[in-house]
Amino acid sequence: MDMFIILEVIGLILGFVFLIKGSDIFVDGASSIALLLKVPTVIVGLTVVAFGTSAPEAAVSITSSITGSNAMAVSNVIGSNIFNLLMVVGIAALLNELLMEEDVLKSDLPFLTIMTGVLALVIFFFSGIPSIIGIGLLIVLIAYIFKLIRTAGESGSTHDVEKPKYDLKWSIVAAICGLAAIVIGGELVVYCASDIAIALGMSETLVGLTIVAIGTSLPELATSLTALNKGETDLVIGNVIGSNIFNILFVLGASSAISAISLDSSILIDTFLLLLFTVIFYIFGKSDQKFSKREGAFLVICFIGYMAYAISMNYLF
After folding, report:
1. Closest by alpha carbon to 211, among 97, 314, 134, 93?
2. 70 vs 127: CA distance, rounded Å
3. Over the stretch 167-203, which tens digit does the pLDDT of each residue have?
4. Neighbours of 138 (CB within 10 A)
5. In angstroms, rounded to a whole number, what is the distance separating the alpha carbons of residues 102 and 183?
6. Which of 98, 133, 138, 120 is nearest to 240 (CA)?
7. Rounded to an integer, what is the distance from CA 232 to the centroid of its chain?
8. Average pLDDT over the chain, rounded to whole?
9. Which DSSP symbol is given to 157?
10. Residue range 78-118, pLDDT digits in tens
11. Nearest-angstrom CA–CA distance, 250 and 135
12. CA pair distance 100, 179, nearest whole angstrom
């Protein structure tokens, strides 16, 4: 049994490596293709890069949905969004005060809060996410992307210049290899995480909320710390909010559109906790348009408390 778990953990780590590295390679390849085809840089960022940072969550959740692991499909997104809000922003704020852009505060953050509330209500009333709701989420995503592109166009930022990383041939190869790595990584993470859960007496929901959620959120953490190191503190919050919006609209939308998701009532508490954390996040941002070190510490403490709660609920009940 011990050797079995060790092998499964190795498989899980390999899965995360495939997911994270694959998403990087995919973004580089797809971005280069778009730029070579003269697609404006801002559109590349709002579509290809946004998808790339959510690719690990998408791969895991869609694979889970297809294989019938509905609890992991949803708990992965809920756990990832909680990790992004509390740990990614919390750790970054502890290192450096984070500023919030006016547009993000007035538009994207309220939109994220509303969509998180909609998700909580859908799960409450339907005990899951019906396929028709999933299709609706994808439609909202398309409208949201068009809105972002139109707004960027009006501000004149569509004329940014960026050089492609590869020529067309290697861009296509990179995009295909990156996508293949994402798919393989998603398969490894779902199957190995499920096996570990069974072996250790953990529920799929707990594994999705903790191990898988943290693992698939590593790209957001890495991206935010890189932005922080470059002094671009306003990008940290923007990246997190954008990623969380894509997780709800794209990842859960695609997963439930493929196969309607039925859930145990226990996930409802975690969903409403996500809503609570999102509201707290909104209040912090709204108060003075920045996140101080004190607020960062509070967010990290909230995450530690949430992890303690999630683990205790698994083993006590």
Report:
1. 314
2. 12
3. 888 988 988 898 888 888 888 887 888 788 778 788 8
4. 17
5. 37
6. 98
7. 20
8. 85
9. G
10. 999 999 999 999 999 999 998 888 878 888 899 999 999 99
11. 10
12. 32
- Cα separation of 245 and 266, whole Å? 23
Q: Is 21 exposed, middle or buried (0-12, 13-18, 19+ CB in 10 A)?
A: middle
Tokens of 191: 């199957």
Structure tokens at 260: 């309607």
Task: Sort 3 into a burial class: Cβ within 10 Å, 0-12 / 13-18 / 19+.
Answer: exposed
Task: Quote the CA–CA distance of 31 and 165 in Å, as a whole number.
Answer: 8
- Residue ranges with strand state E in 16-150: 98-99, 128-129
Band the pLDDT of 47: cuts 50, 70, 90.
Answer: low
Residue type, 257: A
> Would you put residue 156 in left (φ > 0), alpha (ψ -120 to 50) or beta?
left
Cβ density class 46-70: b for 16+ within 10 Å, e for less: bbbbbbbbbbbbbbbbbbbbeeebb
Nearest-angstrom CA–CA distance, 105 and 110:
7
Q: Tell me whether residue 187 is exposed, middle or buried, using C-beta atoms within 10 angstroms of its C-beta: 0 to 12, 13 to 18, 19 or more.
A: middle
As given in the structure block, the two tokens for residue 65 are 């949905």
DSSP class of residue 1 equals -
Q: Which amino acid is at 276?
A: L
Contact 9, 199 (CB under 8 A): no
Within 190-287, strands assigned E span 261-262
Highest mean pLDDT among 58-62, 108-112, 310-314: 108-112
What the chain holds in terms of domains, given with CATH numbers, is 2-316 (1.20.1420.30)
Eight-class DSSP state of 310 = H
How does strand 290-291 pair with strand 261-262? unpaired
